Amino acid sequence: MLSARVSRRPLAIPFLLTRRFLATSAHNTPSFIPVIDFTKFREAAGKSERKQVADKIVSAFKDSGFIYLAGHGIPSSTIQNAFAKSADFFRMPPEIKAKLAWEDPRSNRGYVEIGRERVTQSADPAEIAALRATAPDFKQSMEIGRDWDAEWKNQWPQESDAPGFKRTMLDFYQTCHDLHASVMRSIALGLNLEEGFFDSKINEQCHNLRLLSYPPIKTALLQGEGQARAGAHSDYGTLTLLFQDSVGGLEVKNPHTGAFIPATPIPGTIVVNVGDLLARWSNDVLRSTLHRVVAPSAKQISDTEAMTPARQSIAFFANPNFSAEVACLPNCGKEAKYPPVNAGAYIVGRLAVTYT
């Protein structure tokens, strides 16, 4: 979830800030989400240097399930361009976007209009339908998968309707996969596995690049019971890479207090969190933490009404290969909490009850 306003230079963040409990800074970041500089992992001369960074990442994922990743190596210009093309897409007329509509959870590709998705921890279709009717998610999205899939095809707009959109998103998808693979190598190292343990289990790139647009909305429409721009939920896969704009709205549930705390955007960083399948893989050694998107501060437009600002974000939902079996890792407890599960079946099952 970084905006077009992101700094043109990567933010230099001292490595001493990678302590497990980062003191609340001028950014008002939650103290249980540390900022970790990934530069030393990417550029390390040897395994021992990488292990130092890996241990910090795994420690944070054990504690809160979330980090701010600095020094990730993705140029700010690349992120800015992805945000600009995403904004161009959502500005297209509704009738053009409607032709690209999301159709099938096995595909998980295409345009999702406002109110069609209702993220929640429930797996009960009737309960989700009721939530969607009374408290729909106020957002629209565009879902993009691997473009070479033999069975499921992406829903691309015509080049004349969205110039450069397809090429930008294909390149960004690959960039995000490459970063995801590197972070997974750090997790393997931090869990005292072979550094390449996950390589063959994520190389098929069965991921989901989600472009998100939260239109401006009157605050009265967000005041119903259970209402939010995106309801409290955990993610489904291994890791999520979240690029935020400067508006904010992401809140993370502190696993120690139960309170939802704003994860204020920090320029030059990516929010990275553990998904359900990685938590399951690790026997809950790594946390998949609840989070939500709420309305940021609103602007008063009359004596009785206020308007929340528009918000953009980009989420890269990284998954295991859909053919992979997710079973308790060998060094994450003597007794498995969960039976083995096929990654593809798990994710499709979660998606199937999330959408209409």
From TrEMBL:
Residues in the signal sequence: none
* Xref: InterPro entries: DIOX_N (IPR026992), IPNS-like_FE2OG_OXY (IPR044861), IPNS-like_sf (IPR027443), Oxoglu/Fe-dep_dioxygenase_dom (IPR005123)
Gene Ontology MF term list:
metal ion binding; oxidoreductase activity
- Say if the entry is tagged with keyword Oxidoreductase: yes
Q: Which domain of life is it from?
A: Eukaryota
The protein's matches in Pfam families, at most eight in alphabetical order, are given as: 2OG-FeII_Oxy (PF03171), DIOX_N (PF14226)
Describe the location of the Fe2OG dioxygenase domain by residue ranges.
202-320
Keywords, in A-Z order: Iron, Metal-binding, Oxidoreductase
UniProt family annotation? Belongs to the iron/ascorbate-dependent oxidoreductase family.
Q: What is this protein called?
A: 2OG-Fe(II) oxygenase
